[in-house]
Every structure is written in structure tokens, then in C-alpha cells.
Amino acid sequence: MQLPAPRGPLTALLFERLACPPHEFGPPPVPSRTPALEDEDLQLALFACYELHYRGFAEVDEEWEWEPSLLAVRGALERRFEDGLARSVPRPVPTFSASIRRALAELTAAATGPDLSGFLQHEADLAQFREFVAHRSIYHLKEADPHTWAIPRLHGGPKAALVEIQADEYGGGHAGRMHSELFRTTMRRLGMDDSYGAYLDRVPAITLAVSNAMSLFGLHRRHLGALLGHLTAFEMTSSIPNRRYSMGLRRLGGDEEARRFYDEHVQADAVHEQIAAHDMCGGFVRQYPARAGDVLYGTACALTLERLFAEHVMDNWRRGASSLREAGLTVGSR
Fold this sequence. Notes:
The chain has two domains: 9-88, no CATH class; 97-318, Heme Oxygenase, Chain A (Up-down Bundle). It has 334 residues and is an all-alpha fold. The chain is built from 14 helices and no strands.
């Protein structure tokens, strides 16, 4: 993946520095006053910093990954992001370990927001469905990777439960059955570019924030509980929307191969939901009762970011506009 176009002074400086051999970064520009979850410059900068821990960028030296001065800059960006999450996501009241599964179920059941999956099932045209896929490609082409950071930080039953979930995400050892590969097939069948990061220039801040929250939780051991709660939110709210996505794609002419990614999640996530809530989160809270609130906060963050994402997409579609950005627009642009 190539470095994307900058979206403001922060990413302009960051990408200029990253294109050079590793060196002392120096202080970043003064942050803007744009709310963190809407800040195109901040979210893209943070995404780029995190991407150095995944596949990286073609023109960026791999030694930048652990350059101390860059990590200090990333830490400053993370503090702004964490503050933005705290302002947008009320922290749920911690619960006792015996009721964590019920608390998770109540939290997900109470989630509100536009019915994006229903719209895609019944009303979206093919261009809108492709837009939705472009947004989701930012995460789905590396699906499961952020949550895998939790594996070496767990022990006992919760670790075994997470490994069971992740094994399915990675296709049980079969490359063609990996969920990221199934999504690439969906993209190809829709006539889209399935290369990693192909739509990075097009997605807005909220799409990047959805991905950045996973990386934030995954790369910091202090956020382990939140990472588990985040994954559990995904698993507990996945089956019905994915069934609707599949039905919508079939309505639009998508064949079985194009729909396989969504159909796989209808079945797999119905099982994963139970494993995640009971064995993984329940077991984790039994080991660490004081971290129950962290688990619920991670779930709440995932649900809130999904709501904000759906609001962005549906608001634009209702106005007859695209939910994607025009490539190359800078800070302050749509």
C-alpha cells in the first residue's frame, strides 16, 4: 500500500517524514479543534501510525515502526482519540462477573441508529452497495488482525475461547476460507479493486475511527478488556445484518460467490456470539472482576462508532450524495 494523500497539516508533515529514513520526528503541528471522531487529519494520521504495525507502506522504512519519537507523536494522537471516545461513549456501570453475559446482551439490545442493513437489503442500488463495501474494506481486508493482539495477553479459558473464534476468522488453516479472502472475492465480483487499502483515500474520518478503535485497544495491554468487549459487540450484532447484506446483494444480482462472505458470518457469528460472551468475556471477568467495566466500555465504543458510521452513510444517501470522499481532499473538505 502506498501512503495516501494528506488531509491537513498533520498528515502532510507525517507523510513527508515517513517517506525519509527514520530520524527524530520532532513535535507535531498544533492539533485542530475539530472533534476527534470527525477530524479527517487526526484519524488518517493515527491510521497511518497504526498501519506500521500491520503491513506498512511501500515507501516507508520498516524501522519507523518502533522509532521512539514517532511513538511519542502517536501517543499524543491517541490521547486526543481516547478523549473523543470518552466524550461520545458513556462508560457503562460495571457489573458482577456472574451477570456479564446479561449485561453485554442488554447493552447490544439497547443499541440504536439508522437501519443501514435494512436499507441495503431492500432499497440500496448497486452503487450504494459498492460504497458500503468500500468503507468496510478498510477493516475486512485485515479482518481479525486487531483482535489477535489479545491472544498472548490472555491465559486459560478466555485465551482458548479467543483462539477458537480467531481460527474460524482465519479459515481454519485454509487460505481461501479466510474471511479477509472471502471479502476480497465479494469485491472482485462487484467489479471493485480488491487490493489492500485501495479505498483508503476515499473513506471519511468515521470509517477510519471504526478501525482505529480496534488498533488502539489491540496495541495497548491496558485496553485488553475493552478489546474483548469490542470483539464481542461485533459477534453479538453480526448475524442479522449479514443476512440482510446477503439478501440485498442477491436482490442486486450478486451470485453465491459474491455473497459467501456475508453468508459465512450469518452462521459463524451465531456460534461466536456464545463463545465470546460466555467463555471469553465471562471467563476474563471471573479472572479479573475489576475489569468488567472495561469490557462493557469496549462494547459501548464499538456500538457507538457503528451508529455514527451508519448515520454518516445514511445522511449522505438521503441527500442523494456519496458517503465517500473525493480522493485527495484536504482538511475541511467533505
